[in-house]
């Protein structure tokens, strides 16, 4: 009886190890043979795409949960607006402005931010801009921008939903006109 149990558990152990070895062999084969298509014209299978998107959402929400946003001032919004047009508009567009032509070839596609910002809280936008999103074209701005600049960008991004094209254009003029409306 005792030795039967032992046989059974060592059988299971062999099965588990065998499965692990087999998956490792499949993994290494994919890595070395080029069987996996890395083209940016081929999206992931729907299940993998769903898993990646959901992982991004929960990962950002968790990591950003302890960040305290400052009060947003008119100056922050206006300097953030200028910076947004220099750093983000190519990929994300803006009210009345389409993303650059080359940005249409990025996968996953950078979303038109005015349409999706309402899904995110300010602390999450701050986190995304500071740290970027690995394995996507979303850059980390933390290495080149201090927290104050990133909060200014965030303050501006939070104003995007419902902003008119005319108001958006005023931020690019590099003067304080945007603050007077
Ligand atoms: C080179 C292209 C590129 C630039 C420049 C860029 N982004 Fe992104 N961004 C992306 C891509 C691609 C995603 C989608 C990532 C994903 O879904 O995995 C993204 C996602 C985001 C998101 C999350 C939106 C969502 O629902 O997916 C925010 C917020 C964001 N970017 C803000 C910014 C801001 C602010 C800037 C400028 C400081 C910026 N990005 C510059 C490519 C870019």
Sequence stretches where pLDDT stays below 50 over 5 or more residues: 175-181
Mean pLDDT across all residues, rounded? 92
The CATH class of the largest domain, by name, is: Mainly Alpha
Q: Any guess at the CATH architecture of the largest domain?
A: Orthogonal Bundle
User: Can you identify the CATH superfamily of the largest domain?
Assistant: Cytochrome c-like domain
Order of helices and strands, N to C?
Answer: HHHHHHHH
Report on the biggest sheet. none
The general outline is: elongated
Bound molecules: heme C
What is the helix content?
55-70%
The number of helical runs is 8
Instruction: Give me the count of strands.
Output: 0
The secondary-structure class comes to: mainly alpha
CATH topology type of the largest domain? Cytochrome Bc1 Complex, Chain D, domain 2
Number of domains: 2
Specify Rg, calculated over alpha carbons.
Answer: 23 Å
Instruction: Tell me the span between the first and last alpha carbons.
Output: 85 Å
Strand content bin: under 5%
Pfam family, one: Cytochrome_CBB3
Protein name: Cytochrome c
GO molecular function, one term: heme binding
Organism: Stutzerimonas marianensis
């Amino acid at each position: 009886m005792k030795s039967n149990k032992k046989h059974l558990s060592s059988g299971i152990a062999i099965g588990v190890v065998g499965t692990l070895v087999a998956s490792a062999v499949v993994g290494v084969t994919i890595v070395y043979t080029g069987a996996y298509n890395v083209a940016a014209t081929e999206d992931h299978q729907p299940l993998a795409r769903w898993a990646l998107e959901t992982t991004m959402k929960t990962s950002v929400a968790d990591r950003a949960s302890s960040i305290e946003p400052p009060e947003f001032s008119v100056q922050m919004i206006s300097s953030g607006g200028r910076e947004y047009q220099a750093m983000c508009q190519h990929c994300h567009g803006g009210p009345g402005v389409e993303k650059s032509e080359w940005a249409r070839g990025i996968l996953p596609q950078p979303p038109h931010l005015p349409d999706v910002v309402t899904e995110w809280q300010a602390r999450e936008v701050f986190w995304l801009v500071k740290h970027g999103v690995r394995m996507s074209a979303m850059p980390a701005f933390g290495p080149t921008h201090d927290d104050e600049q990133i909060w200014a960008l965030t303050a501006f991004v939070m104003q995007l939903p419902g902003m008119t094209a005319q108001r958006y254009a005023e931020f690019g003029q590099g003067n304080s006109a945007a603050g007077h409306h």
